[in-house]
UniProtKB/TrEMBL annotation, chain A:
Pfam family, one: SBP_bac_1
Signal peptide range in chain numbering: 1-21
InterPro entries referenced in this protein's UniProt entry, alphabetically: Bact_solute-bd_prot1 (IPR050490), SBP (IPR006059)
Name used for this protein in its record: L-arabinose transport system sugar-binding protein
Keywords associated with the record: Cell membrane, Lipoprotein, Membrane, Palmitate, Signal
Domain of life: Bacteria
UniProtKB/TrEMBL annotation, chain B:
Keyword Transmembrane part of the UniProt annotation: yes
SUPFAM superfamilies tied to this protein: MetI-like
Residues annotated as domain ABC transmembrane type-1: 82-298
Keyword Cell membrane: yes
A Pfam family: BPD_transp_1
Protein family membership: Belongs to the binding-protein-dependent transport system permease family.
Main location class: membrane
GO biological-process terms attached to the record: transmembrane transport
Organism: Paenibacillus mucilaginosus 3016
Keywords: Cell membrane, Membrane, Transmembrane, Transmembrane helix, Transport
A GO CC term assigned to this protein in UniProt: plasma membrane
Protein name: Binding-protein-dependent transport systems inner membrane component
Mode of membrane association: Multi-pass membrane protein
Automatic annotation (TrEMBL), chain C:
Cross-referenced PANTHER family: ABC TRANSPORTER PERMEASE PROTEIN MG189-RELATED-RELATED, ARABINOOLIGOSACCHARIDES TRANSPORT SYSTEM PERMEASE PROTEIN ARAQ
Protein name in UniProt: AraQ
InterPro entries, sorted: MetI-like, MetI-like_sf
Presence of the UniProt keyword Membrane in the record: yes
GO biological process, one term: transmembrane transport
Keywords: Cell membrane, Membrane, Transmembrane, Transmembrane helix, Transport
Keyword ATP-binding found: no
Major site of localization recorded for this protein: membrane
Recorded family membership: Belongs to the binding-protein-dependent transport system permease family.
Record-linked PROSITE patterns: ABC_TM1
Taxonomy of the source species: Bacteria, Bacillati, Bacillota, Bacilli, Bacillales
Cross-referenced Pfam families: BPD_transp_1
Any one Gene Ontology cellular component term annotated for this protein: plasma membrane
Amino acid sequence: MKKAHGLMLATTLLLSSLATACSSGGETAKPDANAGGAAAGGKTKLQFWTFNELHQKYFVSMAEAWNKAHPDKAIQLEASTLPFDDMHNKLLVALQSGTGAPDISDIEISKFPNYLKGTPQLAELNTVVEPELKNIVKSRVDIYSKDGKYYGIDYHVGASVIYYNKEMLDKAGVNPDSITTWDEFYEAGKKVVAATGKPMITFEATDPFSFWPMIAQQGSDITDKDGKVTLDNEKNIAVLQYMQKLVKEKIAIVAPGGFHHAEEYYGFMNKAGAASIAMPMWYMGRFTDYMPDLKGKLVIKPMPAWTKGGNRSVGMGGTGTAVTAQSKNKELAAEFLAFAKLSKEANIQIWKQLGFDPIRTEVWTAPELKEDNKFTQYFGKDIFDVMIEIKDEIGPINVNEKMPEVNDELKKTTLFKALNDMEDPAKVLKESADQLRK
Amino acid sequence: MKNHTVAIQAVEKKRSGSLAYNQRLAPYVFVAPFLITFILFFAYPVASTVLMSFQEVLPGQTKFIGFDNYKKLLNPTFYKAIANSAKYTVLTLLVLIPLPLVLAVFLNSTFMRGKNFFRSTLFVPALTSVVVAGTVFKLVFSELDSALANTFIGFFGIESQKWLGQSSTALLVLVLLATWRWLGVNIIYFLSGLQSIPTELYESADIDGANTWDKFVKITLPLLKPVTIYVLTISIYAGFAMFTESYMLYNGNRSPKDMGLTIVGYIYQQGLEKNNLGLGSAIGLTLLGITMFINLVQLKITGQFRKGD
Amino acid sequence: MPQTKSWSVQSVLLLLLFAAIAVFTLFPIYALFLASFKPSQELLRYGLNLRFDTELMSLKNYAFIFSGDASNYFGWYTNSLVITVLATLLCLLFSSMVGYGLAVYDFKGRNLIFVLVLIVMMVPVEIILLPLYKLIIGLRMMDSIWGVILPFMVAPLPIFFFRQYAEGLPKDFLDAGRIDGCSEYGIFFRLMAPLMAPAFGAMAILQGMGAWNNFLWPLIVLKSNEKFTLPIGLATLLTPYGNNYDILIAGSVLAILPILILFIFFQRFFVSGLTVGGVKG
């Protein structure tokens, strides 16, 4: 036994000297061959990473459209879909080590701040973003900016709305248009529970899409502009208390599976498990794909406000697409990205292919958005009426370096304790906030 | 055999002419693949992880920070990860040693029919990848009343559980997953041990009038000791190294209140997700310390180290 | 044993016990198998269930996979096959050589090397993931199948196993081989290795299983979708914003096949291989 131990120590010591020599040699890596922009048949190669296959398909189609429109600047898009966490890890490592990053990459909003730390290793997009600022929902590029420089462009607004099950509300004699505040929502909820025996709404306990919009619509947030933790402020406590009250009185339940993207949740909702769900616009796709039985039964309405006339929406979730600093063709990549994310045609395609609420506001009234597709068949032709109604009420959230950590804590601990374990909201918010401020 | 001496002389001659016949060199050639990979892919990484655990590793600049990484480890999340891994390991040991041992004895008994069929059937889960098994288990243990697990306990009048939403049942699901996947493998290990026990021993015990229980305790168990120790050892590693199972059940490394976080999950989180190689290395070495300690204790108790040359 | 088998009470009870265990063992796979023939919406509607509903069942999911539109499924499949075959063959070759060398030769440093093998066996791979990852970057083996295979090509467990097995080989074969004019390596490859066939069978299954189902290390090394192995490819279908069940479920069923075939093919070696090689210590 001793022998084995001694041996190990000896080898370890011997090799640690070797180790330093080797690692310094290893780090002077040449730039990755495939990061280069070698032209293939006159086309410039651009690498694109994403974590969602649909985004990949979308970008491939936009590359084809680009090549038709700009034969002189043709590109060859090499798109790759990686597992979610893995893609973000690899991109971060590649950017930090200075080699191996693609030209263009998707970065999910809750991960984005990790890429803006220090000197961002992403390319500035001001030249393409600034001319379009007046045409788009500005907060959807602001969230990916630092010191006045834009580094990412979102796919969608992610406007939070509420989806009511019309059939269930009718049974209770509740008119969705009469619900304008959360107090009215509570009262309506009582009626629905009495009439149907089912909860009015579901809340997430392991994801933030219930809590966050409800605090952000009244101007609060989990962090402030400077990245200070504001998780335990008065407004947030009040919101979480409100949520817990609804759960206690069985007007709300915690989403089966803990969040609105759990397999069991889809099955539960599909069988009309609850009368409403407050989620961003992009949640539409989950209904069409996973909850086919609710077709024609849902209405999309603005979320209730906290006070009469208060803000009703907030842009939630999102994925910023960025050009990396390592790209050899930053300008071309940025131009293409603008084409694929900011142009009118692109925004129509984002709706058609991905079912997202596009960030370019003018297309919301475009006839293409009323065209027959799986979304209009499911929700009716006037989906975007609600967007036009809340257009000026879609608040932003604060995206900063502290946000991912606070978001993680919220998802993992705070909401679960308050809504699942029914601990005191003020106490759990304070505990989490204190933990994060350390 | 007639020309024995001639043959040997011829061979000797040939040998001296070619390295392929060099008996002194041969063993080193045979073990060379191990030595090369040992140095490159084991000793060097171990050394560098030791080194990194005392460093802050940033791109382009690395500095020594003494024991700071280890100090950072003294936090509730890490304790939770250790507690989870330890509980999981102990529970898997409690299930995956006695159960397969007894089942293997049954399978090996003369009364058993369809031996080969059951042996193969029980092995099948081990062939599925954790990605597949995790997906299935997540669906089986979903919290809907109509989910398989809830339907099953419903037969016994137990109300539906949020399996993955409470630490106790979450641990249970993880242990069940391990049991499902590894029961058949361990049965085969024990079977192989049983088959190397000479039947004469049982026959002479029969003559002495020993009953089944006596034979099991006095012959089977002691002679299965080497296999048991082997299974115990690999189970301890597997237990403390568990990660992918929890990763799959919790959509990537995120479980409420960290109820599914394991030590390796924490390495993954700190080292790869947060790219903090220094802290990740410190966690890894703590894990090494734990497994080394347990194994040395175990080897000492069972007296295996002396035999290990 | 010369005892005759009869349908005694014990037999029936044992059979019942094992039948029950077999049902528990197989039902998740059966449920997955059934689900693979149903539309994914069905899965989400009712969860995983054991209903055999011929009206709902079709080969659509499989047709979709075979149509080539389904992600890069067959690319992943091919990669997994290539990596599994290469990794298993190389591992068997080298590990058997090392195990054999340790067993039949008496040479300086033999005990030391064997202790090193034991040490490697005792250290969980997970603790050196990070430096290994840095090393693979340094060796320019990121995103290549060699980066996946090489670090674990010579594995301690098979070495240990082959050594145990080779110790039981008749030593006179060695001398006979030398007399017949075989080189040391000829003796190994032509005479001894065939004698170790059961050991190769047992290790082929264990290593093949490991390589086919390996997740964490390939996840770290591979970074382009067209190089992914099956488990990682399947994992790309799981995103925080929704999963692609159509390919996931049928794809998972297909993923079990090759390794099942390998098992059926080699299983007669499996138990005998483990028995003789013996985990004796």
